[in-house]
Amino acid sequence: MIPALKRLAANKTALTGAVVSALVAFAVVFGPMISPYDGDSMDVMAMLAPPSLAHPFGTDTMGRDVLTRVLYGARLSLLISISGVGIAAVLGSMIGLFIAYRPGFVSNLLMKASDLLFSFPSFVLALFLMVVLGYGVFNVALAIALIYLPIFVRLARNLAQLIVMEPWVQAAKLFGQPTHSILLRELLPNALSPLLVQATIGVAFGIVIEAGVSFLGLGVQPPAPSLGLVMSDGREYFNTAPWVLTMTGLAISIALLGLNLLGDGLRDLTDPKLKERLS
């Protein structure tokens, strides 16, 4: 544990990403509790008020505090992204490990289905899935899961193909361990680090996907808060009150920056060559 923390502290990218991500997580979890405003409370005397000490992100056309709405929206957007990427990571990793360990007709069929999903641009596939599945929080999370599923399948398969011929895996085969035991005990632990890095980066882009489809009116629907809905509201009166859209976009950018830096730093830390240089 201590050597891992030392390597984290020595890697400026990972450390910066971890600090920014921790601050964002703290704000998302505890911010709505600390804020003196409610996400839906309206103040007709403070409609479209510019940023100030009382309202750091200003207010919208209904007099609602934009910062509070961003915090509530970020909580929902982050939950949707983590849920979707989590489903994709678990299911995709197990499918990828199975394809590498048990090649055959079923594995080829699974890989072809994964390649079909992977062939579509992410946001185009998200829009198509939202039209097919319909609106709502659950469907947005499901769409994110289907978008990232082939990514984890391909990554897990490639990693497992490097591990499956190792002596300890072959020994587990000879001792008669069942397939699920070999996948979970022998293959998965040795492929876990790159998968976790991909999941961290995936959560960042999952937030973008959720915000994008909700901004276009195809994702989360009012009155549920989300970052995309807050930005969509600000689009209508951008010329007179640009702070609603710009401040929400800035908050999203900071969250993405932290998660991407954390993912890049973790990728560096899991590089064996870098471990040798830092040890």
TrEMBL record:
<feature type="transmembrane region" description="Helical">
    <location>
        <begin position="240"/>
        <end position="263"/>
    </location>
</feature>
<dbReference type="InterPro" id="IPR025966">
    <property type="entry name" value="OppC_N"/>
</dbReference>
<dbReference type="Pfam" id="PF00528">
    <property type="entry name" value="BPD_transp_1"/>
</dbReference>
<keyword id="KW-0813">Transport</keyword>
<dbReference type="Pfam" id="PF12911">
    <property type="entry name" value="OppC_N"/>
</dbReference>
<feature type="transmembrane region" description="Helical">
    <location>
        <begin position="195"/>
        <end position="220"/>
    </location>
</feature>
<dbReference type="InterPro" id="IPR035906">
    <property type="entry name" value="MetI-like_sf"/>
</dbReference>
<keyword id="KW-1133">Transmembrane helix</keyword>
<feature type="transmembrane region" description="Helical">
    <location>
        <begin position="12"/>
        <end position="34"/>
    </location>
</feature>
<dbReference type="InterPro" id="IPR000515">
    <property type="entry name" value="MetI-like"/>
</dbReference>
<keyword id="KW-0812">Transmembrane</keyword>
<feature type="transmembrane region" description="Helical">
    <location>
        <begin position="113"/>
        <end position="131"/>
    </location>
</feature>
<comment type="similarity">
    <text>Belongs to the binding-protein-dependent transport system permease family.</text>
</comment>
<keyword id="KW-0472">Membrane</keyword>
<protein>
    <submittedName>
        <fullName>ABC transporter permease subunit</fullName>
    </submittedName>
</protein>
<feature type="domain" description="ABC transmembrane type-1">
    <location>
        <begin position="74"/>
        <end position="263"/>
    </location>
</feature>
<dbReference type="InterPro" id="IPR050366">
    <property type="entry name" value="BP-dependent_transpt_permease"/>
</dbReference>
<feature type="transmembrane region" description="Helical">
    <location>
        <begin position="76"/>
        <end position="101"/>
    </location>
</feature>
<keyword id="KW-1003">Cell membrane</keyword>
